[in-house]
Amino acid sequence: MKRKLIKQGGGGFTFYVPKNWIQERGLKAGEEINVEEVNDKLVISSDSKHKLETKIKLEENTTHYIYVKLSHAYRMGFDKITLTFTDEKDVKKITKIVKDNLLGFEITHKEKNKCVLENITEPTDEKFSVLLRRIYLQIKETHLLMLEDFSNQTKENQEEIKEIRTSLDKHIFFCRRVISKKMNIEENSILLWELLTFLM
Q1: Adjacent-strand bridge partners of 43
Q2: Residue 128 reports pLDDT greater than 80
Q3: Most buried among 4, 40, 96, 126, using CB within 10 Å?
Q4: Residue 59 pLDDT > 90, yes or no?
């Protein structure tokens, strides 16, 4: 979308912000928006809590299928996911997947063949570097536990290794979510995405 610059007094310029963008965020005349320079781009944002929403109809009820659908929606940056399904038993699978993999998400509404997942306690993207350090630490912890099991020729640490892996995946999903939301403005987004794929 292109906009023409309108010359103002004092050497400044203005341009029109798209009406849809304003309406989606519930903004009104006189309210403030944020304008940041990121590399060679000008990024306009708002502090209003605009939520990205999606609806997913579960065609299958295998755990793997549900996991793939939810993890993709989460990583793509959706804040509200409405799921419809045919088997009421799917709620148990959905609950476990949310708990194990979707950092900050909870089921906020349930009906017979429908439930809603929402982002209610997700960390801010400023925590990205903290979680990245945590991911490296988890890999190191896993390595040490595996070495210990190999040395002792046991599987004593197997459950702990599984728990660390689940937590690692959850942190990587969140980091990918942050990247998805900024994919078009951050210069090294693709490199970071590839790094997280490698770490996973």
Answers
A1: 36
A2: yes
A3: 96
A4: yes
CB atoms within 10 A of CB 27: 17
Is residue 17 within 8 Å of residue 33, measured between CB atoms? yes
* Nearest alpha carbon to residue 74 among 44, 92, 100: 100
pLDDT of residue 160: 97
pTM: 0.69
Q: Can you list the pairs that 186-192 forms with residues at least 24 positions away whose Cβ atoms lie under 8 Å?
A: 186/38, 187/39
Residue 1 has pLDDT above 80, yes or no: no
